[in-house]
Amino acid sequence: GAVVSQHPSRVICKSGTSVKIECRSLDFQATTMFWYRQFPKQSLMLMATSNEGSKATYEQGVEKDKFLINHASLTLSTLTVTSAHPEDSSFYICSAKETSGDLRGQFFGPGTRLTVL
Amino acid sequence: KNQVEQSPQSLIILEGKNCTLQCNYTVSPFSNLRWYKQDTGRGPVSLTIMTFSENTKSNGRYTATLDADTKQSSLHITASQLSDSASYICVVSAYLGGQNFVFGPGTRLSVLP
Predict the structure, then answer these.
(1) Are A24 and A5 in contact (CB under 8 A)?
(2) A43 and B93: CB-CB below 8 Å?
(3) Secondary element (H or E) of residue A117
(4) Residue B95 with chain A: CB contacts under 8 Å
(5) Quick one: DSSP state of residue B53?
(6) Which residues are within 8 A (CB) of A32 and not within 5 positions of it... i.e. 6 or more apart?
(7) How would residue A104 be classed by pLDDT, with cut points 50, 70 and 90?
(8) A20 in Cβ contact with A8 (< 8 Å)
(9) Nearest CB to B104 within list A32, A43, A104
(10) Do A111 and B106 make contact, defined as CB atoms within 8 angstroms?
(11) pLDDT tens digits, one per residue of A41-77
């Protein structure tokens, strides 16, 4: 099946620094990628939908200036958490949707554990 | 309001036993329904996907059913194994000029030896 990778898998940073998380579709092209945040024992919460070559669409309550999303190619989307604070500590997961038009194809990455000290 | 509910919230069973997880949704217009398995600290992995016309779909020991009339789905796990311990998430897609995915809260399954 299609593979989505994320890098890094785990990151620890100091409060006030910025962290970039990469999401790559390894064997397929994805015009649309999704970014989710998941707190312990809770379900995934959609943060934003990223379309290749255009601005991301953010869900209500998600600060677009704090969570910068870039989808510069059909295989790469990045999420940058700017001026991270301890409350941003969470599990961030991306997913990618195939461009083939098959409505079945949304594949998740393994996630990135962010800890802000 | 598009919503997905799952029950039970958590479940503990003994290895080798069967179990059934439930998913009820109020998502419209319905496109498809997926069941995902998420191990702790990992991303979700797709188990099954069903469109409106599909009533059942199997993937090894996992069998999902869909009743589009009552807007209910179930995931049946047969002969459970310790590795089945995970969260199982029901995701319903609505087609609103593009895919809109509605996530259920998940059922946390623990399989004990």
Answers:
(1) yes
(2) no
(3) none
(4) 103
(5) T
(6) A49, A50, A51, A52, A96, A97, B99
(7) low
(8) no
(9) A43
(10) no
(11) 888 888 999 888 888 999 989 999 999 999 888 899 9
